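Lay summary. Proteins are chains of building blocks that fold into shapes, and those shapes determine what they do. In this project we predict the shape from the chain. Here is one chain we studied, written as its sequence of building blocks.
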Amino acid sequence: MKYLTLAAGLCAATVAGAETPILNVYTYDSFTSDWGPGPAIEAAFEDICSCDLQFSAVGDGAALIARLNLEGDHSEADVVLGIDTNLADQALADQFFVPHTLENPALTLPIEWDNATYVPYDWGYFAFVYDTTKTDTIPANFRDLAASDLKVVIQDPRTSTPGLGLMMWIKAAYGDEAPAIWTDLSDNIVTVTKGWSESYGMFLEGEADMALSYTTSPAYHLIVEEDASKSAAAFDEGHYMQIEVAAVTKSADQPELAQQFLEFMISDAAQTILPTTNWMYPAATPAAGLPEGFETLTVPEKSLLIPAEDAGSIREAALAEWLDALSQ
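And here is the predicted shape, written in a compact code that computers can read:
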């Protein structure tokens, strides 16, 4: 009986020790949706990690920072995926993350990338998307848009990374003239939504002529719906770039798995998934290249990007200008 008891105890210990580790990744809502990259990323990573990858949807990208501030050192996140360069400085200042362990990742970003904490996994350009069958006169810049009768939907920069990107776009393009641009645009703005999904849905339902989105958004309609009617307006003052990143939290219960996940996110396995699920450019172009249809997309003649180290001070001033202009 003692032997049986001991054997049973050893067996239980072995089973307990063999429990599948859980990797918890905080990200934004659209990433985890049925049509987003989450399900395919989860399946592909679990094939190689002997783990249970669990995504926690936390609103839009900007809401990730608020969640981390709320949870502090008690956060259950091992990885945060979906912060961009406009918010990266804030997260570093709050010391949420630890350095990554990747050495010389083979990235194909249009800019040089050298950051000890963040690993970029995709990127794109912000743009106003319209329906070519309904909108004839396309503005060539923000001044043209403000002078037109076109109605647009945008996102709140306090809760949405595209909304924040638009705010930084106008600031990067116009500097001290940004408040006047916002004042002129205020009549064109139908509403300001919390996140991208709400505003893009309003555009698709015909409640606005244009929606703030990405130059890559028309690829979804072309590839998935075989609909070539959506296009992105090319603005001559340039388009602001968004680079989305992932990082390992300092409170991670699975730090080694978390580092493995960052490496996976820039592998061919993940980078092949992202273009036709997150509808962005991959940070490391897969060996097979970009999907058919991406060659039809609007390519900005000029790229705009405020360096991450400068984004914090500019962000606060730009937000005050945005609030003042839209409250009048």
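What the prediction tells us: The chain has 13 helices and twelve strands.
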